Amino acid sequence: MTDELYNRGEQIRREVLGEAYVNNSVASTDAFSEPMRTFAVRNLWGDVWARPGLDRRARSITNLALLAAANRPNELKIHIRAALNNGLQREEIGEIFLQVALYAGVPTGSDATRVAKLTFAEIDAEAKPA
């Protein structure tokens, strides 16, 4: 790929999601999933995430609320890590899910909180020396 949106998207994606996640994603992409990955890299990361209207922290806050409300736990887990990379603190993520509970229902906020707790535990385990 040589197009500008794709290249910019791949760079932003690596900065936000981390090298390990992106490398794993690329390695697990096959002929069936490649069009979706390319679409997301170009349009989501290369266009929308590159826009100047919101900083990455604000985009992460928005994503956490939307993914929690839409009941997308797999993407939520990815974006909890991204939110931490973008400067959010764990306590702020908890506050976002309280807000979600208020507007999208307590079960939704509770589920998001559970996903966050599991994700934090994974991150903590990864940080411990072997």
List the helices and strands and how they pair.
Blueprint: H1 4-17, H2 19-27, H3 34-48, H4 56-69, H5 73-85, H6 90-104, H7 106-127
Helix pairs in contact: 1-2, 1-3, 4-5, 4-6, 5-7, 6-7
Question: Can you give a write-up of this model?
Answer:
With 130 residues, this protein is mainly α. The chain has 2 domains: 1-51, no CATH class; 54-130, AhpD-like (Up-down Bundle), CATH 1.20.1290. The protein starts with a helix and ends with a helix. Helix 1 packs across helix 2 (19-27). The chain contains 7 helices and no strands. Helix content is 78%, strand content 0%.
In short:
This protein has about 130 residues and is mainly α.
Tally of discrete structural domains: 2
Q: Would you list the SSEs in sequence order as H and E? A: HHHHHHH
CATH superfamily of the largest domain: AhpD-like
CATH architecture of the largest domain: Up-down Bundle
What is the number of strand segments?
0
Shape: globular
Q: Helical element count?
A: 7
Features:
single chain; 130 residues; mainly alpha; AhpD-like; 78% helix; globular
